Amino acid sequence: MVTGEALLERLTERAQPVLAKMPAIPRIKALLSSDGGVCPEDGSTLVFDPWSPHQHRCARCNGVYSGERHDGAWAKYQHLWLSERAAHLATVAALGSNEAAAERAAAILRSYDPPYFELPNRDNVLGPSHLFFSTYLESIWVLNIIAAATQLRTTNLMDEELIGSIDRIADEAASLIGEFNEGFSNRQTWHAAALTAIAAWFEDDDLARQAIEGRTGLLGHLADGFGEDGTWFEGENYHLFALRGLLVGLGWARSMGAELLEDEAVASHLRAALMAPARTALPDLTFPARKDSRYGVSLAQPMYLELWEVGRSLAGDPDGVIGGWLNALYQVPAQPALTFDSYLHEAAEPPPSQRTRADLSWWTLLHTPDEQPEATEWKPASVYLPSPGLAILRNGSRYASLECGATGGGHGHPDRLHLTLHADGVHWLPDFGTGSYVARDLFWYRSTLSHNAPLVDGKSQPLESAVAQHFDQKGDWGWMHGTFEGCDRTVVAGPSYLLDILTFSAADPHQVELAWHLAGEIRIETPGSWEPVAFENEFVTNSERFVPSQPGVIVVRGAMGARQCRLHLLFEGDLLRMRAPGTPGSGPADFLLCRAEGALARMTTVVDLSPDGRVTRLVREGERITVTHEGSDQHVSLLDGWQVETGGSIVKLGGAIRAAATTAPMIVFDRPDVLTAPAAWVSEPPALDGTPDGFDQSYPLTLDTELQYRRSEEPYPGPESLSATAFLNWNDEAIFLMVEVVKPELAIRPGNAPPLTLDNEVDDIHSDGLQVYLARAGRVLGFLVVPEANGQGLRVRTAGETEGIPGMIEGSWSRTDEGYRVTLVLRPDWYLDDPEGLKFDLLINEMYADRQRRAGQLVWSGGNGWVYLQGDRQDPRRFGVLELVP
Predict the structure, then answer these.
(1) Residue 499 scores a pLDDT above 60
(2) Radius of gyration, alpha carbons of the chain
(3) Helix/strand/coil for 677
(4) How far apart are CA 72 and CA 67, in angstroms?
(5) What residues form DSSP beta bridges with 385?
(6) Least confident of 61-65, 117-121, 664-668, 680-684
């Protein structure tokens, strides 16, 4: 049986449960919360079952849980699943002449008018939406809705009343999606695809042209979102998500006669994007969890299989490489399908024993030809990818990579010079990626300490780019070398071990640390003892310092069953052991930390991958490193390369990367004009009792324009509904601030209010209040200030990841006829005797009693954007200049 017939038959079979029973249509808006859809016992995600709207099971503990929060999380997937089923049924109806499928698809479509319009477009997390909390989900949903409706209308299986309903839904969706342009992001590919589908439905050439050819349209994302080497700037997880959105959009463009892939340059670039995840894949065919990626996800997931199936159909496969890659994936034993926003085809179904093309979704059926083209054998190779600055050395089943380049936009991590190692089926040195976006441990996974990467003075790295300097491989030997912020890291890969050298140099002494998140049971083989040591980090426990019996190399063994990996650590400093979150969802795990002090620090490590630990000695004498195993290897750094003397031969590695790749920011930073905030000198401190007494009001700062507003669903309400005037004063030790806010309806969060448990942001951002920032010489003090609902006091906490201490602020507040007034003093831990380089910013948060999340905020230095995902953070690049007026 040819592929199309088998897939149609399988789709018809899988449609039977929906034909037998109409699924539940949620009458609620999806909710994102930290406890909804999460097992209260073990924190694992509850299973999505489309047939169980109120009883939600945990696969780990097998408990069943109910409640509004769980129902809200379930509603997200149910809305998406239903739209998929509508498209699935419409495909079966159109291609299989199945009248029952047509009727059920139409019933699902009909059920969303009027509920789609009745669910409120408010309290969203990332863009306007009726059914969901983010616009990209609305885009995915409406793409399936339009796909179903188009197939029914094309085959005359749809009445005029239903066509009118789809018209109204598509028109409203286009308005919501069109106003929330996210620039270059994975989500915007789905927005562009949805607008292209809506344009096809209405036969709107102008909307199609904008969605396809616009700066942030389909072609823009293909050209600029995927680099010349085909890699997406946000890492593999979002590469795959953006690529699926792009392919869906290109299919809709083709339906309107836009044959974009007839241009070989466009098709070639798309093929590069299709194959980039294959080039970076780990040996077990999972993708590396770089940046905000999910950990341990197989590229043989059915969602990804059909991505390459459809991509090959659209872009062609002249050399058979995509086909060879697909054949390799089909050999992987079938795993249960994960739950993805854009793929719920196998929800509540057991996986097949072995997946074939006949197990994929309706989307594949519409694009995949019956006869498959020739394929070549897939053979992964070592590679340097300039767009992400990622170097990968492969040798048999071993994979080692060094991360240079840019951090990767909003989903990037401060993990420059991170080392990943996968060998003999074990992920010995993993990148953890990211777990839940609404759990507190997100901040752990987004820290340098959670990576096998260097950090200086105990702080996560700045979000800057690392520079790849060298990459080369000759036979069994290869090396990669990069630099970042005073750190220089070289990794030399030989037949049975890696040699890793981290060097730090600066004009002044610093503390330099390098974490080793080694998989398995960790044991120190070098004789010595452990003693407790203090380590300040909210995620770290059980910190200890190793006291060796004698100086020299410290040998550490990691064991996974019979397989083992040894680290031979040579450095001057301390070795620490501690516990912190391990791979997402696995609980805490031990890791090691090498710590050194000084203006020059060097850490030399041999990672011995031989099954019986054959490395016996590591010696460093000046620039010469000797590694003794069965033989003796001499390593020497050359002027522009690396030399290995081994087994009577000399291997010279070069591969200088002369011009480091520069990655333009994917989301354009719209920098406002730099404003000046004058502060008047006062000889006596103001009263700070919620009145203007004692304040010099010579230099008012106004926040009263649309350009200073960050909105959520609604635009700026106007200065009569929300505005502020601020006055800054100063003396040698403090800054004094009075803010008069115009806001007739106050919504102040009480300090003893129960937790919102919406996400990992602090609850006090969802209250009327202030965010105040003061900066100098790279130090940023930030504060979230909320009036106490039951008095005149102020509730103060440190904002974001700034250095502010709540005790630096004191003050009061009072109600006014038009809103409220805050008076406070900020005492930084530096004297204000040097006015040069002082920066300042002030934000006013806007909340209402009938909302879950804040409505917006005024930003003195310039808003003109969206409040979504801002939290209690403010980019210091936006701060204005604080001028101390004598």
Answers:
(1) yes
(2) 29
(3) strand
(4) 9
(5) 390
(6) 664-668
Which pair of tokens denotes residue 166?
Answer: 């789809």
Q: What is the rounded distance in angstroms from the CA atom of residue 44 to the CA atom of residue 621? A: 50
Q: What angle do CA 596, 599, 600 make, to 5 degrees?
A: 70
Residue range 71-92, pLDDT digits in tens: 999 999 999 999 999 999 999 9
| Amino acid (1-letter code) at residue 687 | A
**pLDDT one-digit tens code per residue, 624-676:** 999 999 889 999 999 899 999 998 899 999 999 976 444 444 444 344 578 99
Question: Which are the contacts of 558, defined by CB distance < 8 A and separation ≥ 6?
Answer: 428, 518, 519, 520, 521, 522, 564, 565, 566, 567
Cα–Cα separations (whole angstroms), residue 713 to 122, 431, 725, 873 = 6, 36, 25, 20
**Residue 831 — very low, low, confident or very high, per pLDDT cuts 50/70/90?**
confident
Interatomic CA distance for residues 28 and 130, integer angstroms: 10
Residue 685, classified by CB atoms within 10 Å of its CB into exposed (0-12), middle (13-18) or buried (19+), is middle
For position 505, what pLDDT does the model report? Answer: 97
Tens of pLDDT along 697-712? Answer: 999 999 999 999 999 9
Amino acid residing at 300: A
In whole angstroms, give the CA distance from residue 400 to residue 500.
11
Measured CA to CA in angstroms, residue 175 lies from 48, 286, 707 at distances of 30, 38, 22
Helix ranges restricted to H, 65-185:
68-96, 99-110, 115-118, 135-154, 160-179
Query: What's the pLDDT at 564?
Result: 95
Rounded distance, CA 779 to CA 803, Å? 7
Reported residue count of the chain is 886
Structure tokens that stand for 569 in this block: 């650590």
Taken in order 131, 135, 136, 140, the sign of the CA dihedral is positive
Phi-psi region of 433 (alpha: psi -120 to 50; beta: other; left: phi over 0): left
Dist. CA 307–CA 364, nearest whole Å: 8
* Contact by Cβ (8 Å): 557, 522: yes
CA distances in angstroms from 355 to 10, 85, 289, 351, 677, listed in the order given = 12, 20, 24, 8, 64
SS3 653: strand
37: left (phi over 0), alpha (psi -120 to 50) or beta: left
The whole-chain average pLDDT of the chain stands at 95
Other CB atoms within 10 A of residue 156 CB: 9
Q: Phi-psi category of 12—alpha, beta or left, where left has phi over 0 and alpha has psi -120 to 50?
A: alpha
Which 3 state secondary structure label does DSSP give 494? coil
- Under 8 Å CB-to-CB from 819, ≥6 apart: which residues? 740, 741, 742, 743, 744, 746
Distance CA 278, CA 276 (A): 5
DSSP E strands, 494-540 = 497-516, 521-524, 528-532
- DSSP assignment of 154-217 equals HTT-S-HHHHHHHHHHHHHHHHHHHH---SSSHHHHHHHHHHHHHHHHHT-HHHHHHHHHSTTS
Helix (H) or strand (E) holding 323: helix 321-330
Residue 145 reports pLDDT greater than 80: yes
Interval 328-377: pLDDT, tens: 999 999 989 999 999 999 998 999 989 999 999 999 999 877 677 789 99
> What CA–CA distance (Å, rounded) separates 134 from 177?
10
Q: Please provide the distance, in angstroms rounded to a whole number, between the alpha carbons at the two ends of the chain.
A: 87
Residue 593: Cβ within 10 Å count: 21
Rounded-to-integer distance, Cα 621 and Cα 127, Å:
58
pTM comes to 0.95
Average pLDDT of the segment spanning 366-392: 90
Residue 420 belongs to what H/E stretch?
strand 419-423
